[in-house]
Amino acid sequence: MGIKALEVWNRRLHYYLGLYFLFFLWLFSLTGLMLNHQQWFTDLYERRQSSYDVPIETLVGDTQLELTRDAMRQLSLQGEIDWPAAQPVGHLDFSVSRPNGSAQVRVDVNAKKAYVREFENGHLHAFQILHTFSGSRFNQPASRRDWVMTSIWVFAMDALSAGLIVMVLGSYYMWWRLKKRKALGAMVLCAGAASCSVFLLGFL
Amino acid sequence: MLYRWLRDLHLYFGLFISPFILLFAASVFYLNHGKLSAGTEPTTDVYRNLTVPDGFDRLKGREAVDRAKAILPQVDVAGEIGFLRYVPIDRHLIFPVSRAGSEAVVDVDLDARTANVTRRSMNLWESLSYLHKMPGPHNVAIRGNWSGTRAWRVLADATIYLTLFISVSGVYLWWAIKAERRIGLTLLTAGAVTFFGLIFAILHGH
User: Fold this and answer.
1) Model-level pTM?
2) In chain A, whose CA is at the least distance from the CA of B80?
3) Does A158 touch chain B (CB under 8 A)?
4) For the residues of B19-68, what is the DSSP string, one character each?
5) What is the value of ipTM here, to two decimals?
6) Cα distance from A48 to chain B (closest Cα, Å)?
7) A109-130: per-residue pLDDT in tens?
């Protein structure tokens, strides 16, 4: 492949990736702004809460995960599972979360009863949670994602990040080939790199 | 005329924020897949004869943080105070202080006027992730109590605004190339279907 063809495909890749990821990029940009300026949105985080208890059948499973999944199936709950550090005797406690809500569940195994407290997030709150919805608990090395939708969403986040890196590197090449804009571009790039490095290296 | 201006602004704004985009994009991989490792062993230093401001038993929020900041130069620590915990039973004040590259926990004995400072250095991935998450949604009332965090907030915001500008101007610049409209529209539609389909599945799917 000649230089000319490489340039054409590099330019095409730049805007093809940009167009495909446009909505993802807007979501993460806008939610990033929301996360950094919670004070602008305090009144918009409405959350409805409801509590109920229901009888359940004997839980089936050999592991905590299987028992929890069976309880979730019976309660029609979906999402990422989280357990407390220790389970009370005769109980199975867990919480399930997804961007538009969460549920705290306490199953009394002997009484065959589940006590559920459900929270429903508003649209804006759910929108914001998508920014951080990775199911990742990096301070718990043994934890893993348990909901398939979380894994798919994380794949989308990774794909966007990889796409952005490719776009940035490709844009450096496109700029470098523009002779008239090399000097000013180099100054601007150096200014950006310097201001970013000051923070990354811990000077500020 | 508009095309030329937008093309130049797209280029120069893009070049300026490109290191920030790389930082935010690269840190996503650590945030999504990284696990906290033990890393370097923390070190603890003891400081004595400190000048300790009073009022920690009654002050809260920004006022308390402002007073705690007076302790930081005396224990050779600089950074963002995460939160303050006053322990009334033995009159200790404990607070974490962080910046990219390092974090410290300062434990001040208010009566003895001494402080134990435990320091830990972050690796590059942790530093990238730390910057990605700052200033963030937590402890809004006291967030930005260090000049570095306030400056980073401005740059993080600027990155967002310029990203939005670059994406919109990018759409305009693509639309101007008539030969690329068809395939571009196909990709834009495919991206929209993927995006809205995923969100619908996450919010309403079983």
Assistant:
1) 0.90
2) A204
3) yes
4) HHHHHHHHHHHHHHH------SPPEEEEE-S----S-TTT--HHHHHHHH
5) 0.91
6) 16
7) 888 899 999 999 888 889 999 9
